């Protein structure tokens, strides 16, 4: 393990900056502009086999699980196949029902996470089909799966995962697109999404260019002992991942919540000392999300809103971070990137070793 990038900058930072190239590598050679689809040779499934899939079940741990939740929504939206994500660490300890027409997807940067590996082995033992979304070529999870999608993010050293996660998201988008195009997703929609995916590397670069502003907000958030990260539907796994990154390296308490669930309990905690980072994309749910922001503001809760330029927050007094708009289904990726920088700069301000957070290992390979 070599600490730091060798140029004095933490590995996590260089890995955040590498994301335009890593996402570009995940996409390379896999998009079909003519038919508006993706080609994933590693799946080893023909159109008939892809059409026979009735359910998609995604398994991963920690941030890979949260990206899995983003992936499940993509599969449901683009392919209209019921899909969900579960922590592999929970799945393996129950007695899961393995169905022959379910496609199981194991997602892991390292490919060595013991809970994910044992979940794959349990599925295989019961005759299920598992594909991997894995970064490390030839790793244990990749070998145990029936096929899969390599992420090509490049080596990820920092404990806090960044570039692997954005490439996982792209891997799910490619899978959902291919599953959708053998079903009812139109060629026009397929082409729209292909164009959206092609725009992502440059748009990630645009988010990274707003680093100074994000660093200012991070310094303010770092003063709070406790905060919320909230989002709805597509925004909720983004909030979960944002909170995870923040607590991992800043050691601040950051709790992710579904926007509408706030009023069922945690709203009691909102006060001028407890800020909320809210994910409010420009989509069919914007009005509902803005209404929830009013409820937080009315309790004196400071707000940092990660949103799109088109979203009108009216008279609300908030700090906002605008990210570029892509196709609505693909928005979660660009909403995630500022949260990485937010966590990174908060940890720097607090003087923590961002590459080696206390109590954590890069991959959890023992039970
Ligand atoms: C991410 O920042 C975390 N360090 C952690 O949650 C990680 O995503 C998890 O342990 C899974 O690792 P894997 O992708 O290598 O399986």
TrEMBL record:
The keyword Repeat applies. Coiled coil: none annotated. It catalyses: D-fructose 6-phosphate + L-glutamine = D-glucosamine 6-phosphate + L-glutamate. GO terms for cellular component: cytosol. The chain holds residues 241 to 607 of 607 of the full protein. Its EC number is 2.6.1.16. It comes from the Bacteria. GO terms for biological process: fructose 6-phosphate metabolic process; protein N-linked glycosylation; UDP-N-acetylglucosamine metabolic process. Residues 46-185, 217-357 form the SIS domain. It is an enzyme of class 2 (transferase). It is found in: Cytoplasm. The keyword tRNA processing does not apply. It comes from Antribacter soli. This is Glutamine--fructose-6-phosphate aminotransferase [isomerizing]. GO terms for molecular function: carbohydrate derivative binding; glutamine-fructose-6-phosphate transaminase (isomerizing) activity. Keywords: Aminotransferase, Cytoplasm, Glutamine amidotransferase, Repeat, Transferase.
């Amino acid at each position: 393990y070599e600490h730091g990038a060798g140029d004095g900058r933490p590995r996590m930072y260089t890995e955040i900056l590498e994301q335009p190239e890593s996402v570009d590598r995940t996409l390379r050679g896999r998009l079909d502009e003519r038919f508006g689809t993706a080609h994933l040779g590693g799946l080893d499934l023909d159109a008939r086999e892809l059409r026979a899939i009735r359910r998609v079940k995604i398994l991963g741990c920690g941030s890979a699980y949260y990206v899995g939740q983003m992936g499940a929504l993509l599969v449901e939206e683009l392919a209209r196949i019921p899909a969900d994500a579960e922590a592999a660490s929970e799945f393996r300890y129950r007695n899961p029902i393995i169905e022959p027409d379910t496609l199981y997807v194991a997602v892991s940067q390292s490919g060595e996470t013991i809970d994910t590996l044992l979940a794959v082995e349990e599925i295989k033992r019961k005759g299920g089909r598992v594909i991997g979304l894995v970064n490390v070529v030839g790793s244990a999870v990749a070998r145990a799966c029936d096929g899969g999608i390599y992420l090509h993010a490049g080596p990820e050293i920092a404990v806090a995962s960044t570039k692997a996660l954005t490439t996982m998201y792209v891997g799910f988008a490619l899978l959902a697109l291919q599953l959708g195009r053998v079903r009812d997703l139109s060629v026009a929609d397929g082409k729209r999404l292909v164009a959206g995916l092609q725009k992502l590397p440059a748009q990630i670069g645009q988010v990274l260019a707003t680093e100074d502003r994000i660093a200012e907000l991070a310094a303010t958030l770092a003063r709070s002992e406790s905060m919320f990260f909230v989002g709805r539907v597509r925004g909720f796994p983004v909030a979960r991942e944002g909170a995870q990154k923040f607590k991992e390296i800043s050691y601040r308490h950051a709790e992710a919540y579904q926007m509408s669930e706030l009023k069922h309990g945690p709203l009691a905690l909102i006060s001028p000392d407890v800020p909320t980072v809210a994910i409010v994309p420009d989509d069919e749910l914007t009005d509902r999300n803005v209404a929830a922001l009013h409820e937080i503001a009315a309790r004196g809760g400071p707000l940092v809103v990660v949103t799109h330029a088109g979203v009108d927050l009216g008279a609300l007094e908030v700090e906002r971070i605008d990210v570029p708009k892509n196709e609505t289904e693909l928005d979660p990726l660009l909403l995630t990137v500022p949260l990485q920088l937010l966590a990174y700069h908060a940890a720097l301000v607090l003087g923590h070793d961002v590459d080696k957070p206390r109590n954590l290992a890069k991959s959890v390979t023992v039970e």
